[in-house]
Amino acid sequence: MNEAETRAEHIDPALAAAGWGVVDGSRIRREYPITLGRIEGHGRRGKALKADYVLEYRNTKLATVAAKAWDEALTEGVGQAKDYATKLAIRYTYATNGQGIYAIDMETGHEAEVPQYPTPDELWAKIFAEQNAWRDRFAAVPFEDRGGYFQGRYYQDIQHMMMTSFWHPDGTPMSSQQFMEMLFGKLPEFFHNEAELRTIWSAPDTRAKLLEALATEGFGHDQLAEMQRIIDADKSDLFDVLAHVAYALPTVTREVRAANARVHIHSEFNDRQQAFLDFVLAHYVSEGVEELDQKKLTPLLRLKYHDSLSDAVADLGKPEEIGRVFAGFQKYLYQGGA
Asked: What pLDDT, on the 0 to 100 scale, is given for residue 63?
């Protein structure tokens, strides 16, 4: 019996009997890509490394399984199983030939043959003995299930994985949850409370410095934008990603933020300034917080005043006054309660 037959006739049924791919919130990821293969020159790569199985529950990768053919020794796949677990930073891994199951705890070093796979809840309880509020929030995010065929929402093939996955410094991928937990642990280094985050984010210069510092630590714009999609906040602000991760705040759409800000704008600025800020807000709602960068001020003025900066100055005042208006109104987008 070859490996493919062993998987179909023995390994897959054993996993299903333990609830994997059956229990709500669990799924089996087959041929899960780990590395893309060594670059060999002339645009070619070596063979990609894939895990035979990754067992996932509540949006969290809990274990890997290395499969071998029925006639091979039970421990034949141990080295392969450990390699999977090491590269994916997963604690539990299993080697199997369909006849038996050899379990390995990468944290304690304990290895032994076991009679069956643990259920998703049993493995979750072994790994996460202590409650973690952030992990539980992330685990509640639903994943796509298409007719019983489980496939990662953001990892549908290797090419897409390259664009939307997250990577450790050594080049191995990390899960969205791992990225979020890393971000959760790092955010206190950048701001100490919700009020400080709002203050920093309310001004273009301090917001830019924060984003630059986050990018230096591996939390760049593309990664934060991907998190934005994962928490279903495409129409919100990157501020909402940070506030949601750090303080579990509900997300607010850019449209709602703009509507709240207009209440203050109409009482704080003159009619011509209001008209310009309404124009800016329309771009913010449509495109995102990048439209509020200081470097976007001149392009927005050119767009609003048909490429005539002299008309903008005549309408809105001296350049320094325009700059104060542009930067000053932004705090109304991020006031407490929004």
From this structure: 96
pLDDT band for position 331 (cuts 50, 70, 90) = very high
Overall average pLDDT of the 214-219 stretch = 88
pLDDT at 42: 58
Q: Please say if the pLDDT value at position 303 is more than 70.
A: yes
Return contacts of 238-247, CB within 8 angstroms, 24+ apart. Answer: 238/211, 238/288, 238/289, 239/197, 239/201, 239/289, 239/334, 242/187, 242/197, 242/201, 243/194, 243/197, 245/134, 245/180, 245/183, 245/184, 245/187, 246/184, 246/187, 246/188, 246/191, 246/194, 246/197, 247/194
CA separation for the pair 231, 223 (Å, rounded): 13
- Phi, psi (degrees; rounded to nearest 5) at 161: -60, -40
Between the CA of residue 265 and those of 184, 269, 271, 300, what are the distances in Å? 34, 6, 10, 18
Task: State pTM to two decimals.
Answer: 0.56
What's the whole-number average pLDDT of the chain? Answer: 85
Count of residues making up the chain: 338
**Cα gap 200→195, rounded to integer Å:** 9
Classify residue 306 as exposed, middle or buried by CB count within 10 Å of its CB (0-12, 13-18, 19+): exposed
The two structure tokens encoding residue 196: 């400080």
Q: How far is CA 21 from the centre of its chain?
A: 23
Alpha-carbon distance of 121 to 260, in angstroms, equals: 44
The three-state (H, E, C) secondary structure of 149-218, written as one string = EECCCCCCCHHHHHHHCEECCCCCEECHHHHHHHHHHHHHHCCCCHHHHHHHHCCHHHHHHHHHHHHHCC
pLDDT of 155 over the 50 cut: no
Which pLDDT band holds residue 163 (cuts at 50, 70, 90)?
Answer: very low
pLDDT higher than 80, residue 166: no
